[in-house]
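Incident log, support desk, overnight shift.

02:14 A customer reports that sequence design results differ from what the structure should imply. Their input is reproduced verbatim below. On-call engineer (initials T.W.) acknowledged and began investigating.
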Protein backbone atom coordinates (compact mmCIF):
# COMPACT_ATOMS: atom_id res chain seq x y z
CA UNK A 1 0.00 0.00 0.00
CA UNK A 2 1.44 3.39 -0.97
CA UNK A 3 2.19 5.80 1.82
CA UNK A 4 -0.57 8.14 0.63
CA UNK A 5 -0.69 11.42 2.51
CA UNK A 6 -4.20 12.28 1.38
CA UNK A 7 -7.57 10.63 1.55
CA UNK A 8 -10.80 11.77 -0.05
CA UNK A 9 -12.82 14.21 2.08
CA UNK A 10 -15.09 12.54 4.63
CA UNK A 11 -18.52 11.59 3.27
CA UNK A 12 -17.41 11.91 -0.36
CA UNK A 13 -16.74 9.22 -2.95
CA UNK A 14 -14.58 8.49 -5.93
CA UNK A 15 -16.74 7.25 -8.76
CA UNK A 16 -14.83 4.56 -10.63
CA UNK A 17 -15.78 3.10 -13.98
CA UNK A 18 -17.96 0.35 -12.49
CA UNK A 19 -19.89 3.00 -10.50
CA UNK A 20 -20.47 5.04 -13.63
CA UNK A 21 -22.21 2.10 -15.28
CA UNK A 22 -24.88 2.34 -12.58
CA UNK A 23 -25.04 6.14 -12.64
CA UNK A 24 -25.38 5.96 -16.41
CA UNK A 25 -28.24 3.49 -16.06
CA UNK A 26 -30.12 5.87 -13.72
CA UNK A 27 -29.29 8.82 -15.98
CA UNK A 28 -30.60 6.99 -19.05
CA UNK A 29 -33.89 6.09 -17.37
CA UNK A 30 -34.38 9.59 -15.93
CA UNK A 31 -33.53 11.37 -19.19
CA UNK A 32 -35.79 9.07 -21.25
CA UNK A 33 -38.71 9.72 -18.90
CA UNK A 34 -37.95 13.45 -18.87
CA UNK A 35 -38.08 13.46 -22.67
CA UNK A 36 -41.34 11.52 -22.82
CA UNK A 37 -42.83 14.09 -20.43
CA UNK A 38 -41.42 17.09 -22.40
CA UNK A 39 -39.04 18.30 -19.70
CA UNK A 40 -36.03 20.32 -20.81
CA UNK A 41 -32.54 19.69 -19.42
CA UNK A 42 -30.97 22.35 -17.24
CA UNK A 43 -27.60 22.41 -15.51
CA UNK A 44 -27.02 25.25 -13.06
CA UNK A 45 -23.60 26.19 -11.60
CA UNK A 46 -22.25 24.12 -8.71
CA UNK A 47 -21.68 27.43 -6.87
CA UNK A 48 -24.40 29.95 -6.07
CA UNK A 49 -24.68 33.00 -3.87
CA UNK A 50 -25.09 31.93 -0.27
CA UNK A 51 -28.17 34.12 0.13
CA UNK A 52 -30.09 32.21 -2.56
CA UNK A 53 -30.20 29.20 -0.27
CA UNK A 54 -30.42 31.11 3.02
CA UNK A 55 -33.56 32.81 1.77
CA UNK A 56 -34.93 29.95 -0.31
CA UNK A 57 -34.41 26.99 2.01
CA UNK A 58 -34.94 29.01 5.20
CA UNK A 59 -32.52 30.36 7.82
CA UNK A 60 -33.68 27.99 10.57
CA UNK A 61 -33.36 24.78 8.63
CA UNK A 62 -30.63 22.17 9.25
CA UNK A 63 -29.31 22.67 5.72
CA UNK A 64 -28.70 26.40 6.15
CA UNK A 65 -27.72 26.31 9.82
CA UNK A 66 -25.30 23.40 9.67
CA UNK A 67 -24.83 21.81 6.29
CA UNK A 68 -23.77 24.33 3.67
CA UNK A 69 -20.21 24.56 2.36
CA UNK A 70 -19.76 28.33 2.10
CA UNK A 71 -16.73 30.51 1.48
CA UNK A 72 -15.76 34.05 0.55
CA UNK A 73 -13.98 34.36 -2.81
CA UNK A 74 -10.91 36.55 -3.23
CA UNK A 75 -13.20 39.01 -4.99
CA UNK A 76 -15.43 39.16 -1.90
CA UNK A 77 -18.41 37.13 -3.20
CA UNK A 78 -20.17 35.02 -0.61
CA UNK A 79 -20.72 31.70 -2.35
CA UNK A 80 -21.63 28.16 -1.41
CA UNK A 81 -21.72 24.71 -2.97
CA UNK A 82 -25.31 24.02 -3.95
CA UNK A 83 -27.08 21.88 -1.34
CA UNK A 84 -30.19 21.39 -3.52
CA UNK A 85 -31.53 22.16 -6.98
CA UNK A 86 -34.87 23.89 -6.66
CA UNK A 87 -33.78 27.37 -5.55
CA UNK A 88 -31.24 27.60 -8.45
CA UNK A 89 -33.95 26.50 -10.92
CA UNK A 90 -36.28 29.26 -9.70
CA UNK A 91 -33.41 31.77 -10.01
CA UNK A 92 -32.87 30.60 -13.61
CA UNK A 93 -36.61 30.92 -14.32
CA UNK A 94 -36.59 34.63 -13.47
CA UNK A 95 -33.05 35.47 -14.58
CA UNK A 96 -33.45 33.91 -18.03
CA UNK A 97 -36.94 35.21 -18.76
CA UNK A 98 -38.60 31.77 -18.69
CA UNK A 99 -41.72 33.46 -17.35
CA UNK A 100 -42.23 34.83 -20.88
CA UNK A 101 -42.57 31.30 -22.31
CA UNK A 102 -45.87 29.39 -22.46
CA UNK A 103 -46.52 28.07 -18.95
CA UNK A 104 -45.86 25.72 -17.29
CA UNK A 105 -42.12 25.47 -17.86
CA UNK A 106 -40.85 21.94 -17.25
CA UNK A 107 -37.17 21.46 -16.37
CA UNK A 108 -35.03 18.54 -15.20
CA UNK A 109 -31.48 18.21 -13.91
CA UNK A 110 -28.90 15.60 -12.89
CA UNK A 111 -25.76 16.50 -10.95
CA UNK A 112 -23.81 16.61 -7.68
CA UNK A 113 -24.98 18.40 -4.53
CA UNK A 114 -23.25 19.06 -1.22
CA UNK A 115 -24.40 18.96 2.40
CA UNK A 116 -22.15 18.79 5.44
CA UNK A 117 -24.18 16.05 7.13
CA UNK A 118 -23.00 13.27 9.45
CA UNK A 119 -21.99 10.57 6.97
CA UNK A 120 -23.88 7.28 7.33
CA UNK A 121 -25.49 4.68 5.08
CA UNK A 122 -27.28 6.52 2.27
CA UNK A 123 -26.25 9.94 3.59
CA UNK A 124 -23.21 11.57 2.04
CA UNK A 125 -21.62 14.99 1.90
CA UNK A 126 -21.41 14.94 -1.87
CA UNK A 127 -24.30 13.10 -3.50
CA UNK A 128 -26.00 13.14 -6.88
CA UNK A 129 -29.59 14.08 -7.45
CA UNK A 130 -31.90 14.15 -10.41
CA UNK A 131 -34.81 16.54 -10.22
CA UNK A 132 -37.99 17.54 -12.04
CA UNK A 133 -39.61 20.94 -11.69
CA UNK A 134 -42.92 22.20 -13.19
CA UNK A 135 -43.05 25.98 -12.87
CA UNK A 136 -45.85 28.45 -13.53
CA UNK A 137 -49.10 26.56 -12.83
CA UNK A 138 -50.95 25.79 -9.65
CA UNK A 139 -53.29 23.01 -10.77
CA UNK A 140 -53.43 20.04 -8.37
CA UNK A 141 -53.04 17.64 -11.31
CA UNK A 142 -49.40 18.69 -11.66
CA UNK A 143 -48.68 17.48 -8.11
CA UNK A 144 -50.03 14.09 -9.15
CA UNK A 145 -48.02 14.22 -12.38
CA UNK A 146 -44.74 14.79 -10.50
CA UNK A 147 -45.52 11.84 -8.21
CA UNK A 148 -46.41 9.71 -11.24
CA UNK A 149 -43.11 10.58 -12.96
CA UNK A 150 -41.18 9.73 -9.78
CA UNK A 151 -42.90 6.34 -9.58
CA UNK A 152 -42.35 5.75 -13.28
CA UNK A 153 -38.59 6.16 -12.77
CA UNK A 154 -38.53 3.53 -10.01
CA UNK A 155 -40.75 1.20 -12.06
CA UNK A 156 -38.46 1.53 -15.08
CA UNK A 157 -35.47 0.77 -12.81
CA UNK A 158 -37.39 -2.27 -11.50
CA UNK A 159 -37.29 -1.03 -7.90
CA UNK A 160 -40.36 -2.25 -6.04
CA UNK A 161 -39.97 -2.32 -2.29
CA UNK A 162 -41.06 1.23 -1.49
CA UNK A 163 -43.92 3.19 0.04
CA UNK A 164 -45.28 6.55 -1.11
CA UNK A 165 -45.93 8.81 1.90
CA UNK A 166 -47.85 12.01 1.40
CA UNK A 167 -49.02 14.97 3.47
CA UNK A 168 -50.03 18.60 3.06
CA UNK A 169 -48.43 21.37 5.07
CA UNK A 170 -50.89 23.98 3.79
CA UNK A 171 -49.89 27.56 3.03
CA UNK A 172 -48.12 30.00 5.33
CA UNK A 173 -51.47 31.09 6.76
CA UNK A 174 -52.92 27.76 7.84
CA UNK A 175 -49.46 26.45 8.73
CA UNK A 176 -49.12 29.45 11.05
CA UNK A 177 -52.24 28.43 13.00
CA UNK A 178 -51.05 24.85 13.11
CA UNK A 179 -47.58 25.82 14.35
CA UNK A 180 -49.10 27.76 17.24
CA UNK A 181 -51.23 24.84 18.27
CA UNK A 182 -48.34 22.39 17.90
CA UNK A 183 -45.98 24.56 19.96
CA UNK A 184 -48.66 24.92 22.64
CA UNK A 185 -48.99 21.14 22.81
CA UNK A 186 -45.22 20.49 22.75
CA UNK A 187 -44.29 23.16 25.28
CA UNK A 188 -46.41 21.35 27.85
CA UNK A 189 -44.37 18.23 27.18
CA UNK A 190 -41.00 19.92 26.68
CA UNK A 191 -39.29 17.93 29.45
CA UNK A 192 -39.86 14.68 27.56
CA UNK A 193 -38.31 15.94 24.30
CA UNK A 194 -34.74 15.17 23.25
CA UNK A 195 -32.16 17.96 23.54
CA UNK A 196 -32.28 18.65 19.82
CA UNK A 197 -36.06 19.03 19.79
CA UNK A 198 -35.96 21.37 22.78
CA UNK A 199 -34.02 23.78 20.56
CA UNK A 200 -36.21 23.02 17.56
CA UNK A 201 -39.24 24.05 19.63
CA UNK A 202 -38.04 27.65 19.46
CA UNK A 203 -36.56 27.66 15.95
CA UNK A 204 -38.29 25.09 13.76
CA UNK A 205 -41.04 23.20 15.64
CA UNK A 206 -42.34 21.32 12.57
CA UNK A 207 -39.08 19.34 12.42
CA UNK A 208 -39.97 17.77 15.76
CA UNK A 209 -42.63 15.82 13.88
CA UNK A 210 -40.04 13.66 12.13
CA UNK A 211 -37.59 13.26 15.02
CA UNK A 212 -36.40 9.64 15.24
CA UNK A 213 -35.99 9.69 19.05
CA UNK A 214 -38.43 7.17 20.59
CA UNK A 215 -39.61 9.54 23.36
CA UNK A 216 -40.22 12.36 20.89
CA UNK A 217 -42.06 9.95 18.60
CA UNK A 218 -44.32 8.99 21.49
CA UNK A 219 -45.17 12.64 22.22
CA UNK A 220 -45.67 13.45 18.55
CA UNK A 221 -48.07 10.54 18.04
CA UNK A 222 -50.67 12.38 20.15
CA UNK A 223 -49.89 15.85 18.74
CA UNK A 224 -52.40 17.93 16.74
CA UNK A 225 -52.38 17.06 13.03
CA UNK A 226 -51.96 19.63 10.31
CA UNK A 227 -54.75 18.21 8.18
CA UNK A 228 -57.23 19.47 10.79
CA UNK A 229 -55.88 23.01 10.35
CA UNK A 230 -55.86 23.35 6.56
CA UNK A 231 -57.94 26.20 5.11
CA UNK A 232 -60.68 25.32 2.60
CA UNK A 233 -58.46 26.08 -0.40
CA UNK A 234 -55.52 23.98 0.82
CA UNK A 235 -57.81 21.16 1.89
CA UNK A 236 -59.55 21.09 -1.48
CA UNK A 237 -56.20 21.15 -3.34
CA UNK A 238 -54.87 18.25 -1.27
CA UNK A 239 -57.98 16.11 -1.52
CA UNK A 240 -57.95 16.53 -5.28
CA UNK A 241 -54.36 15.27 -5.35
CA UNK A 242 -55.31 12.24 -3.23
CA UNK A 243 -58.38 11.68 -5.37
CA UNK A 244 -56.20 11.67 -8.51
CA UNK A 245 -53.79 9.15 -6.96
CA UNK A 246 -56.75 6.90 -6.20
CA UNK A 247 -58.02 7.37 -9.75
CA UNK A 248 -54.58 6.34 -11.06
CA UNK A 249 -54.62 3.38 -8.64
CA UNK A 250 -51.42 4.55 -6.99
CA UNK A 251 -51.13 3.19 -3.44
CA UNK A 252 -50.11 5.82 -0.87
CA UNK A 253 -49.87 6.27 2.86
CA UNK A 254 -51.24 9.47 4.31
CA UNK A 255 -48.66 10.55 6.90
CA UNK A 256 -49.86 13.56 8.92
CA UNK A 257 -46.42 13.91 10.51
CA UNK A 258 -44.43 13.99 7.28
CA UNK A 259 -42.44 17.24 7.04
CA UNK A 260 -39.47 18.15 4.87
CA UNK A 261 -36.26 19.87 5.94
CA UNK A 262 -36.84 22.81 3.62
CA UNK A 263 -39.01 25.86 4.33
CA UNK A 264 -40.18 26.66 0.80
CA UNK A 265 -42.73 23.84 0.58
CA UNK A 266 -46.45 24.60 0.57
CA UNK A 267 -49.41 22.22 0.29
CA UNK A 268 -48.50 18.77 -1.04
CA UNK A 269 -45.28 17.12 0.14
CA UNK A 270 -44.30 13.52 -0.48
CA UNK A 271 -41.52 11.00 0.00
CA UNK A 272 -41.04 7.66 -1.71
CA UNK A 273 -39.25 5.65 0.96
CA UNK A 274 -37.37 2.38 0.72
CA UNK A 275 -39.33 -0.01 2.94
CA UNK A 276 -36.22 -1.77 4.20
CA UNK A 277 -34.12 1.24 5.23
CA UNK A 278 -36.79 3.92 5.56
CA UNK A 279 -34.57 6.21 3.45
CA UNK A 280 -36.27 8.56 1.00
CA UNK A 281 -35.41 7.64 -2.59
CA UNK A 282 -37.35 10.45 -4.24
CA UNK A 283 -39.03 13.33 -2.46
CA UNK A 284 -40.62 16.62 -3.28
CA UNK A 285 -43.73 18.72 -3.24
CA UNK A 286 -45.31 22.03 -4.11
CA UNK A 287 -43.43 25.25 -3.43
CA UNK A 288 -45.71 28.13 -4.35
CA UNK A 289 -43.96 30.61 -2.06
CA UNK A 290 -40.41 30.32 -3.43
CA UNK A 291 -40.97 32.80 -6.29
CA UNK A 292 -42.15 35.40 -3.80
CA UNK A 293 -39.18 34.75 -1.49
CA UNK A 294 -36.55 34.94 -4.24
CA UNK A 295 -37.98 37.41 -6.74
CA UNK A 296 -41.04 38.95 -5.10
CA UNK A 297 -43.19 37.35 -7.81
CA UNK A 298 -45.89 34.73 -7.54
CA UNK A 299 -44.73 31.47 -9.05
CA UNK A 300 -46.76 28.36 -8.37
CA UNK A 301 -44.52 25.33 -8.83
CA UNK A 302 -44.07 21.69 -7.93
CA UNK A 303 -41.14 19.30 -8.20
CA UNK A 304 -39.23 16.31 -6.91
CA UNK A 305 -35.64 15.18 -6.47
CA UNK A 306 -34.20 11.67 -6.27
CA UNK A 307 -31.00 10.46 -4.65
CA UNK A 308 -28.86 8.67 -7.24
CA UNK A 309 -26.54 6.89 -4.74
CA UNK A 310 -29.49 5.54 -2.77
CA UNK A 311 -31.04 4.16 -5.95
CA UNK A 312 -27.71 2.76 -7.17
CA UNK A 313 -27.21 0.99 -3.83
CA UNK A 314 -30.52 -0.82 -4.31
CA UNK A 315 -29.67 -1.75 -7.91
CA UNK A 316 -26.37 -3.20 -6.69
CA UNK A 317 -27.57 -4.90 -3.55
CA UNK A 318 -30.62 -6.55 -5.11
CA UNK A 319 -28.69 -7.25 -8.33
CA UNK A 320 -31.59 -5.69 -10.25
CA UNK A 321 -29.13 -4.29 -12.73
CA UNK A 322 -25.81 -5.89 -13.56
CA UNK A 323 -23.64 -4.03 -16.07
CA UNK A 324 -22.99 -6.23 -19.07
CA UNK A 325 -19.43 -6.95 -20.13
CA UNK A 326 -18.99 -6.01 -23.76
CA UNK A 327 -18.15 -9.02 -25.92
CA UNK A 328 -16.35 -10.09 -27.97
CA UNK A 329 -13.26 -8.19 -26.85
CA UNK A 330 -10.38 -7.56 -29.21
CA UNK A 331 -6.77 -7.12 -28.13
CA UNK A 332 -3.97 -5.83 -30.35
CA UNK A 333 -0.55 -7.19 -29.36
CA UNK A 334 2.80 -6.11 -30.79
CA UNK A 335 6.49 -6.98 -30.90
CA UNK A 336 9.36 -4.69 -31.86
CA UNK A 337 9.55 -0.98 -32.69
CA UNK A 338 7.82 -1.21 -36.07
CA UNK A 339 5.22 -3.63 -34.72
CA UNK A 340 4.40 -1.14 -31.94
CA UNK A 341 3.89 1.74 -34.40
CA UNK A 342 1.73 -0.38 -36.69
CA UNK A 343 -0.27 -1.61 -33.70
CA UNK A 344 -1.08 1.99 -32.77
CA UNK A 345 -2.11 2.70 -36.35
CA UNK A 346 -4.34 -0.40 -36.62
CA UNK A 347 -5.96 0.38 -33.26
CA UNK A 348 -6.72 3.86 -34.55
CA UNK A 349 -8.26 2.46 -37.77
CA UNK A 350 -10.49 0.12 -35.76
CA UNK A 351 -11.53 2.91 -33.39
CA UNK A 352 -12.33 5.20 -36.33
CA UNK A 353 -14.74 2.45 -37.32
CA UNK A 354 -16.27 2.55 -33.80
CA UNK A 355 -14.71 -0.77 -32.81
CA UNK A 356 -13.52 -0.86 -29.21
CA UNK A 357 -10.02 -2.34 -28.92
CA UNK A 358 -7.68 -3.08 -26.06
CA UNK A 359 -3.91 -2.82 -26.20
CA UNK A 360 -0.90 -2.40 -24.00
CA UNK A 361 1.46 -0.52 -26.27
CA UNK A 362 3.82 0.45 -23.46
CA UNK A 363 4.70 -3.20 -22.76
CA UNK A 364 7.38 -4.90 -24.87
CA UNK A 365 6.97 -8.43 -23.52
CA UNK A 366 4.50 -10.47 -25.58
CA UNK A 367 3.93 -12.74 -22.59
CA UNK A 368 2.84 -9.78 -20.45
CA UNK A 369 0.55 -8.55 -23.23
CA UNK A 370 -1.11 -11.94 -23.68
CA UNK A 371 -1.56 -12.24 -19.93
CA UNK A 372 -3.50 -8.99 -20.04
CA UNK A 373 -5.54 -10.17 -23.04
CA UNK A 374 -6.42 -13.22 -21.00
CA UNK A 375 -7.35 -11.14 -17.97
CA UNK A 376 -9.82 -9.01 -19.90
CA UNK A 377 -11.16 -12.23 -21.54
CA UNK A 378 -10.31 -11.10 -25.07
CA UNK A 379 -11.91 -13.31 -27.71
CA UNK A 380 -9.56 -12.25 -30.49
CA UNK A 381 -5.93 -11.13 -30.47
CA UNK A 382 -4.44 -9.35 -33.45
CA UNK A 383 -0.68 -9.90 -33.31
CA UNK A 384 1.75 -7.62 -35.14
CA UNK A 385 5.40 -8.61 -34.88
CA UNK A 386 8.47 -7.25 -36.66
CA UNK A 387 8.02 -9.67 -39.59
CA UNK A 388 4.26 -8.98 -39.84
CA UNK A 389 4.94 -5.25 -39.83
CA UNK A 390 7.32 -5.57 -42.75
CA UNK A 391 4.94 -7.80 -44.72
CA UNK A 392 1.85 -5.80 -43.66
CA UNK A 393 0.12 -8.98 -42.61
CA UNK A 394 -1.17 -9.58 -39.05
CA UNK A 395 -1.96 -12.79 -37.21
CA UNK A 396 -5.52 -13.10 -35.95
CA UNK A 397 -5.90 -15.57 -33.13
CA UNK A 398 -9.21 -16.85 -31.77
CA UNK A 399 -8.40 -17.21 -28.06
CA UNK A 400 -11.20 -19.71 -27.42
CA UNK A 401 -10.40 -22.20 -30.19
CA UNK A 402 -6.70 -21.37 -30.49
CA UNK A 403 -7.09 -21.15 -34.30
CA UNK A 404 -4.90 -18.59 -36.10
CA UNK A 405 -4.95 -17.04 -39.55
CA UNK A 406 -3.15 -14.30 -41.41
CA UNK A 407 -4.93 -11.11 -42.57
CA UNK A 408 -3.58 -8.31 -44.68
CA UNK A 409 -3.46 -4.99 -42.81
CA UNK A 410 -5.95 -3.35 -45.18
CA UNK A 411 -8.49 -6.15 -44.55
CA UNK A 412 -8.35 -6.06 -40.71
CA UNK A 413 -11.25 -3.63 -40.19
CA UNK A 414 -13.52 -5.52 -42.59
CA UNK A 415 -12.61 -8.89 -41.06
CA UNK A 416 -13.18 -7.72 -37.45
CA UNK A 417 -16.50 -6.14 -38.42
CA UNK A 418 -17.59 -9.57 -39.70
CA UNK A 419 -16.57 -11.22 -36.44
CA UNK A 420 -18.34 -8.91 -33.98
P1 LIG B 1 -34.06 16.74 -0.59
O1 LIG B 1 -33.37 17.74 -1.48
O2 LIG B 1 -33.62 16.79 0.82
O3 LIG B 1 -35.55 16.75 -0.78
O4 LIG B 1 -33.59 15.31 -1.10
C1 LIG B 1 -33.98 14.73 -2.30
C2 LIG B 1 -33.42 13.34 -2.38
O5 LIG B 1 -32.00 13.39 -2.41
C3 LIG B 1 -33.76 12.48 -1.19
O6 LIG B 1 -34.99 11.83 -1.38
C4 LIG B 1 -32.61 11.52 -1.14
O7 LIG B 1 -32.86 10.43 -2.00
C5 LIG B 1 -31.45 12.31 -1.69
N1 LIG B 1 -30.57 12.85 -0.62
C6 LIG B 1 -30.77 13.93 0.16
N2 LIG B 1 -29.73 14.15 0.99
C7 LIG B 1 -28.83 13.16 0.73
C8 LIG B 1 -27.54 12.83 1.25
N3 LIG B 1 -26.96 13.56 2.20
N4 LIG B 1 -26.89 11.75 0.73
C9 LIG B 1 -27.47 11.01 -0.24
N5 LIG B 1 -28.68 11.28 -0.78
C10 LIG B 1 -29.36 12.34 -0.31
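02:41 Re-run completed on a clean worker. Output:
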Amino acid sequence: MADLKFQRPKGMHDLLDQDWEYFQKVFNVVSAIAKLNNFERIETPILEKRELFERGIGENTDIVEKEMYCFKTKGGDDLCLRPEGTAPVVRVYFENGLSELPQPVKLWYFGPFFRHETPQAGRYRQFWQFGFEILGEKDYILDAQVILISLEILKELKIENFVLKINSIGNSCCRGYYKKSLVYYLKKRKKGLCQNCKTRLERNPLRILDCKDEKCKQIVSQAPQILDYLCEECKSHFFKVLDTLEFLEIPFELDPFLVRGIDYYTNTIFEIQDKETGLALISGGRYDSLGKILANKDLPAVGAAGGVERIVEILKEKRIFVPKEKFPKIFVAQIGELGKKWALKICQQLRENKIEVFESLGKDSLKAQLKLADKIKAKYVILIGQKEALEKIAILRDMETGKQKEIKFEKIVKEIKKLI
